[in-house]
């Protein structure tokens, strides 16, 4: 009787196990069936992104390089300047200008020094050429706190503004440059209507 009970129990256990296995097989996710190659959708190709443009450092414009070569060197200047409208023009001699290309050859640097009447004058001016705007730009400062800014389309005729010794004025100048000499004639006006000579200067190497 005991053997029969064990046999029946074992049979139920086997049936239960088999049933559980069958159920597990039914509930298990089915592996995806591979579709026919004809039905497969083609994978879109992603276009490669173009390489970013390579950065190149700007180069000094040819106009500035040419002017820099013409101006380079040491100059001795003389002339006359308007220090005080009431006193008139004052003559000066022994003014020197040292001209070099500066700041990676993007600017012409002119360093000026000399006696002008009772005053010892010192000044620095920078000149460059804006190739995109097709304009020359000039900025100058001196040892009295004065400053001047000018622009030109040809490097010969300049227009701008200045501030010196507490006075503001419009300015315009004409520059003639040759291989061994250059001349500058400048005018100034407090209102842009009435003009007077600011200075006249002739320089030689």
Textual characterization of the structure:
It is a single chain. The protein is α+β, with helices and mostly antiparallel strands and 205 residues long. The protein has a domain at 62-204: Calycin beta-barrel core domain (Lipocalin). It has helices spanning 2-27, 62-71; strands at 73-84, 88-102, 107-116, 119-130, 135-142, 147-152, 157-164, 167-177, 181-189, 196-204. Strands 1-2-3-4-5-6-7-8-9-10 form a 10-stranded antiparallel β-barrel. The chain is elongated.
Summary of the model, kept short:
By secondary structure, the chain is an alpha+beta fold.
Highlighted features:
205 residues, alpha+beta, Lipocalin
Layout of helices and strands:
Layout (H helix, E strand, L loop, with lengths): L1 H26 L34 H10 L1 E12 L3 E15 L4 E10 L2 E12 L4 E8 L4 E6 L4 E8 L2 E11 L3 E9 L6 E9 L1
Antiparallel strand pairs: 1-2, 1-10, 2-3, 3-4, 4-5, 5-6, 6-7, 7-8, 8-9, 9-10
């Amino acid at each position: 009787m005991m053997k029969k009970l064990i046999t029946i129990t074992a049979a139920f256990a086997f049936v239960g196990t088999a049933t559980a296995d069958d159920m597990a097989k039914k509930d298990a996710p089915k592996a995806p069936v591979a579709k026919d190659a004809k039905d497969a959708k083609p994978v879109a190709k992603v276009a490669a992104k173009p390489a970013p443009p390579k950065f190149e450092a700007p180069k000094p414009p040819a106009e500035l390089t040419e002017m820099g070569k013409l101006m380079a060197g040491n100059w001795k200047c003389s002339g006359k300047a308007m220090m005080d409208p009431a006193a008139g023009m004052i003559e000066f001699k022994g003014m020197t200008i040292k001209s070099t290309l500066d700041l990676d050859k993007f600017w012409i640097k002119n360093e000026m020094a000399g006696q002008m009447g009772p005053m010892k004058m010192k000044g620095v001016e920078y000149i460059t050429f804006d190739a995109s705007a097709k304009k020359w730009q000039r900025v100058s400062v001196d040892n009295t706190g004065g400053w001047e800014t000018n622009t030109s389309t040809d490097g010969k005729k300049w227009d701008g503004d200045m501030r010196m010794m507490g006075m503001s004025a419009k300015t315009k100048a004409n520059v003639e440059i040759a291989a061994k000499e250059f001349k500058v004639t400048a005018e100034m006006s407090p209102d842009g209507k009435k003009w007077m000579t600011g200075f006249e200067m002739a320089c030689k190497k």
